């Protein structure tokens, strides 16, 4: 017999009672509101497990202890965010991402960059993983050895907390990763598992021989084939352990409810340090079932919703951002207020680069038309590139409708962006090129992929064009800091141990001090980029029509030109010319529109009773309903 919700709730309340704490109306209200969701999701996953009720009760107790330890300022934020759940839909939102060590040396050093973050207009700052991690190679910090300790080279947890507070008081939400699919092999749980402690062996997927690993690998995909084939690595004692990514990143075993409870505790610990947006790393991989790809299984969604419910109970100011870099049909399955209300938009990212290479905006236009709309209460995070490689995650079915073969097209795009395709402007590098499967992804900074080093004029245009889309599409724009001054690839990664095998380090360079120093000088490429982006950011922040999530495709009749309408506040019409020539949109496309519109970027009126001409790689934002 599976336990009922009533039984589970009274078990949890009894356990809470034994803590001997006085009732807290806010906690009790939130518990009553979100316990049903927590129970529904967890019982669907764990009802058959003998320890299910105990672990659930223990989870509720840790939620209460965590809530009690939460700072008053964060509790006030909890209430404010509950009252305004749409806070992240604002047109004033702007994200930035950086590695602490590469951008500023230490957390203290980063505090010195606050004036710059304000100059840029950031309202959210994603600091790349900054936890204790293996010394030489930690997959850029994504192999976490302790979720409760900052890497001593960067600073301390107290400094992180203090930085979170300083950011918050300036209206900047701290974003950190929750690397919850795996720990490093140096995490205490991993060490104890390796030492043969049963409780901790059960935190991971460990097999005595190759039988089950072979069976699983018949259907799983290879993620880091340069590091090891398949999904498993061998332990010194001859057993095999699940490691989807690097051999030192061991996948956690969420079929064990103690793992959910333990990671729930780590999550709430981070929430209490002042994290406001939690980037849910590698969400697709957290549940495994034989005979499947072991990606995006229903239980992965249930666990995310359970983590979310736990967060609503004990730290409701914090929201989840999903990192699912998968087929577009699958990406959206994570985007839900009860799961991850915000999500990377890898499709728009990849298709922006696709359109630059082909000079053809039709795949992009099709995606805006059919793949941009999210459920209410959710938002995309629009970015030009991240710390990771670019993979061509468009749907083959969508491409086929335009007569494009997905496999061939990906091969072309890879050739193009590593600069092997004749006439390519791009200066990227291959990442995890797999000759066996023909698979490959792309590394490179925005400036290098856009060919800034080959042709400055065209390179600047391309960088601005892609950013203009990230700033005009519905959602939160996210800048990779350094891109806004045109930072190029860093070839020195090949000499650094721990990085040499991973070409993504080419696009994770150190803070470009000289480029930043030139950012106000319009005679430099850095200055031209920065000043133009600053203007676009300012415009976006001043125009209410850029808030919220509504968008409609606008077919331009010209395959080089993407068009879409943001219908709020009178409407903003956006056009982006991916052609290397001037492109024209015929006036009859505007028949249903007012006669005149305000070109927001140029600051002048344009007549829609004439054809609209866009310069090579140019874009416009037209405010309708102004005249
Ligand atoms: C995510 C990170 C990536 C990392 C992987 C494993 O995809 O973005 O950098 O390698 O997870 O944690
Ligand atoms: C794979 C994963 C993605 C991760 C990437 C890291 O593509 O699907 O989650 O970001 O590898 O390179």
Task: Write up this protein.
The protein is 37% helix and 16% strand. By secondary structure, the chain is of the alpha/beta class. It has a domain at 547-623: Immunoglobulin-like. α1 crosses α3, α2 (25-46) runs antiparallel to α3 and α2 (25-46) packs antiparallel against α13 (298-314).
Q: Layout of helices and strands, plus pairs?
A:
Layout: H1 5-18, H2 25-46, H3 52-68, H4 72-83, E1 95-98, H5 100-104, H6 107-111, H7 114-120, E2 124-127, E3 131-132, E4 146-150, H8 157-169, E5 173-178, E6 182-184, H9 188-194, H10 198-201, E7 206-207, H11 211-217, E8 232-234, E9 240-242, E10 249-251, H12 257-272, E11 277-280, H13 298-314, E12 319-322, H14 328-331, E13 342-344, H15 346-358, H16 362-371, E14 379-383, H17 396-401, H18 406-417, E15 429-434, E16 439-443, H19 446-449, H20 456-472, E17 476-480, H21 513-517, H22 525-542, E18 552-553, E19 561-566, E20 572-577, E21 583-585, E22 596-599, E23 604-607, E24 612-614, E25 619-623
Parallel strand pairs: 1-2, 1-17, 2-5, 5-11, 11-12, 12-13, 13-14, 14-17
Antiparallel strand pairs: 3-4, 6-10, 7-9, 8-9, 15-16, 18-19, 19-20, 20-25, 21-24, 22-23, 22-25
The chain binds alpha-D-glucopyranose (2 copies).
Residues 223, 282, 325-326, 388-389, 391 line the site of one alpha-D-glucopyranose (GLC).
GO molecular function, one term: amylosucrase activity
Protein name: Amylosucrase
Pfam families: Alpha-amylase (PF00128)
């Amino acid at each position: 017999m599976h336990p009922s919700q009533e039984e589970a709730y009274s078990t949890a309340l009894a356990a809470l009672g034994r803590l001997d704490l006085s009732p807290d109306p806010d906690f009790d209200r939130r518990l009553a509101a979100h316990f049903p969701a927590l129970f529904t999701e967890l019982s669907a996953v764990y009802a058959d497990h003998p320890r299910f009720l105990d672990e659930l009760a223990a989870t509720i107790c840790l939620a209460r202890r965590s809530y009690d330890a939460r700072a008053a300022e964060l509790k006030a934020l909890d209430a404010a965010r509950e009252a305004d759940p749409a806070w992240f839909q604002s047109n004033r939102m702007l994200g930035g991402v950086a590695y602490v060590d590469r951008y500023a040396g230490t957390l203290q050093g980063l505090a010195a960059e606050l004036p710059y973050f304000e100059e840029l207009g950031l309202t959210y700052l994603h600091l790349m993983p900054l936890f204790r991690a293996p010394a030489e190679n930690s997959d850029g910090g994504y192999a976490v050895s302790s979720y409760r300790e900052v890497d001593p080279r960067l600073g301390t947890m107290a400094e992180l907390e203090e930085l979170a507070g300083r950011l918050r008081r300036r209206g900047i939400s701290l974003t950190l990763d929750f690397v919850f699919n795996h720990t490093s092999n140096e995490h205490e749980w991993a060490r104890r598992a390796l030492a043969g402690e049963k409780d901790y062996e059960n935190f991971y997927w460990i097999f005595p021989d190759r039988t089950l690993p072979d069976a699983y690998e018949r259907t799983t995909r290879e993620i880091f084939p340069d590091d090891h084939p398949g999904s498993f690595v061998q332990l010194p004692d001859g057993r095999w352990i699940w490691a989807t990514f690097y051999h030192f990143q061991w996948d956690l075993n969420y079929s064990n409810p103690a793992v959910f409870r333990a990671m729930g505790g780590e999550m709430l610990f981070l929430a209490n340090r002042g994290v406001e947006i939690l980037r849910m790393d590698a969400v697709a991989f957290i549940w495994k079932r034989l005979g499947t790809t072991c990606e995006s299984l229903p239980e992965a969604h249930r666990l995310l919703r359970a983590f979310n419910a736990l967060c609503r109970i004990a730290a409701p100011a914090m929201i989840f951002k999903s990192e699912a870099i998968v087929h577009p049909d699958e990406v959206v399955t994570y985007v839900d207020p009860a799961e991850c209300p915000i999500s990377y938009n890898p499709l728009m990212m990849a298709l922006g680069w696709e359109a630059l290479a082909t000079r053809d905006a039709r795949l992009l236009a099709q995606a805006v038309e059919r793949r941009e709309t999210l459920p209410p209460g959710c938002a995309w995070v629009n970015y030009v590139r991240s710390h990771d490689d670019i993979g061509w995650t468009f749907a083959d079915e969508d491409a086929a409708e335009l007569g494009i073969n997905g496999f061939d097209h990906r091969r072309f795009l890879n050739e193009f962006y590593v600069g092997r395709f004749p006439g390519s402007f791009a200066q990227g590098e291959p990442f995890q090129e797999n000759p066996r499967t023909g698979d490959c992804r792309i590394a490179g900074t925005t400036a290098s992929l856009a060919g800034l080093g080959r042709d400055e004029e065209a390179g600047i245009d391309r960088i601005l064009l892609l950013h203009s889309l990230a700033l005009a599409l519905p959602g939160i724009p996210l800048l990779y800091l350094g891109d806004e001054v045109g930072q190029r690839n860093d070839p020195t990664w090949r000499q650094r141990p721990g990085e040499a095998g991973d070409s993504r380090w080419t696009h994770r360079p150190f803070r470009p001090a000289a480029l930043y120093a030139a950012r106000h000088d319009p005679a430099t490429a850095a200055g031209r980029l920065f000043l133009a982006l600053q203007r676009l950011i300012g415009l976006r922040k001043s125009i209410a029509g850029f808030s919220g999530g509504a968008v409609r495709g606008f077919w331009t009749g010209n395959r080089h030109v993407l068009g879409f309408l943001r219908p709020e506040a009178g409407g903003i019409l956006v056009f982006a010319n991916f052609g290397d020539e001037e492109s024209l949109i015929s006036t009859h496309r505007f028949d249903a529109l007012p006669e005149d519109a305000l070109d927001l970027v140029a600051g002048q009126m344009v007549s829609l009773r004439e054809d609209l001409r866009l310069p090579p790689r140019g874009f416009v934002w037209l405010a309708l309903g102004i005249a």
